[in-house]
Amino acid sequence: MDTTTQRIDEWLRDAHAAEAQAATMMRGTASRNDDYPEFSRRLNEQAGLCDNHARAIDQCLADRGSSTSLVKDATGQATAWGQSLSGLVVSDEVVKAALATTTFARMLASSGRVLAAGAGEEGQTETERLCGAMADENERFADDLEAMLPSLTAQYLARETSGTSENGAMAEPNRPQAPTVA
Questions:
Q1: The CATH number fitting domain 3-162, selected from 1.10.579.10, 3.40.50.300, 1.10.10.10, 1.20.1260.10
Q2: Whether this model's pTM surpasses 0.70
Q3: Which end of the chain has fewer CB atoms within 10 angstroms, the N or the C?
C-alpha cells in the first residue's frame, strides 16, 4: 500500500469523525435554541446531511478496503458533547453557536476540498466527486449561517434588552440589573 492511499484513508477517517461530531453538536445546539426557529431548523437539516456524509464516507472507506477509526469517532463524539454542553453556561449561546458552527462548517468544507484533491491525485474519481459534493454542501451551510448572523444578533439583543425569551418567559439575566425606580 502506498503512502498516498494510507494518507487518504487517514483523512477519510478524520472526515468521518468530524461529520459525526458536527451532527451531534448541531442537534444539541438546535434543541437549546428553539426560540430561534430558522436557526434551529437549519442546524437540524444540516445535522441530517452530516449523518449522510458520515455514512457515505464509511462506504467509501469500505470500498477502499479500509474502515472508520473507533478512537477518532469516540473522541469526536466526546468533543461534540462537550461543545454542546458548553452552551449551557453562556447566556449568549445563539450568537456564539452561530459563529462557532459557521467556522466549523468552513473547516469541513476545506477538509472536503483537500480530500477531493487528494483523491484526484490518487485517481479515485468517485471519492473525489463525493468529497467535492460534501465540501459544497458544507460551504452552502456556512454561507446560510453567515447570512443569518445579523438577524440572530438583532433577535438576541432585542430579547436581552426586553428581558424575555420568544415564548414570553423571563430570560435569564446574564448580568446584574439596575433596580428600577417607581
A1: 1.20.1260.10
A2: yes
A3: C
